[in-house]
């Protein structure tokens, strides 16, 4: 029997999770909509870009650029610190949502999971499940995911 697998990957996880957390705590701006990055400490002259907003990408900022390089490309860039505790919270929220679909989940990284849907489709197609997960994550958790399906 072919196994039906979904790969769920959070889009721009560190920046998205930071944005959702900030919005949920009253911050007035969605940092996903402005030139912004998650990165190191400028005052210490250290660090690299860990994640970038789509607007930062328009300036040519890339993951692993130094903070200095990012600032040269976009002098007005907003820099936010990384926070593993926040990432863990949102990763766990995603995982618990995915448990509604299958208990056969393999965490590949903090922002990626593989779901074996072979025995859990319940008269739905794999595409139906993928679309449902995508919609629920956006509506319930506030961020987006990329989902690929494949047979194994």
Summarize the structure in short.
36% of the residues lie in helices and 24% in strands.
Mean pLDDT over the residues: 94
**Overall geometric form:** elongated
Record the strand order, biggest sheet.
5-6-1-7
Order of helices and strands: EHEEHHEHEEHE
Beta-strand residue percentage: 15-25%
Using only CA atoms, what is the Rg?
17 Å
The helix fraction, in percent, is: 25-40%
Separate helix tally = 5
The largest β sheet comes out as: 4 strands, antiparallel
Low-confidence stretches: none
Secondary structure: number of strands: 7
By helix and strand content, what is the structural category? alpha+beta
Separation, N- and C-terminal Cα atoms: 9 Å
Describe the fold and architecture.
By secondary structure, the protein is an alpha+beta fold. The chain contains five helices and seven strands; from the N terminus they run E-H-E-E-H-H-E-H-E-E-H-E. The strands form two sheets. The protein has a four-stranded antiparallel beta sheet, covered by helices on one side. Strand 5 and strand 6 form a beta hairpin. Helix 4 packs across helix 5. The longest helix has 16 residues. The protein is elongated and about 55 Å long. The mean pLDDT is 94.
Summary keywords:
152 residues; alpha+beta; 4-stranded antiparallel beta sheet; 3-stranded mixed beta sheet; 5 helices; 7 strands; 24% strand; elongated
């Amino acid at each position: 029997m072919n196994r039906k697998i979904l790969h769920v990957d959070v889009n721009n996880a560190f920046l998205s999770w930071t944005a959702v957390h900030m919005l949920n705590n009253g911050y007035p701006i969605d940092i996903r909509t402005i030139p912004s990055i998650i990165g190191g400490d400028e005052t210490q002259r250290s660090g690299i870009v860990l994640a970038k907003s789509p607007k930062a990408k328009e300036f040519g900022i890339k993951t692993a650029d130094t903070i200095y390089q990012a600032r040269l490309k976009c002098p007005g860039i907003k820099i936010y610190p990384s926070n593993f505790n926040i990432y863990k919270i949102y990763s766990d929220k995603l995982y618990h949502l995915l448990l509604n679909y299958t208990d056969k989940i393999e965490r590949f990284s903090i922002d990626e999971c593989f779901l074996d849907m072979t025995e859990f489709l319940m008269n739905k197609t794999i595409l139906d499940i993928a679309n449902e997960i995508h919609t629920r994550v956006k509506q319930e958790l506030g961020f987006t995911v990329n989902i690929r399906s494949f047979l194994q």
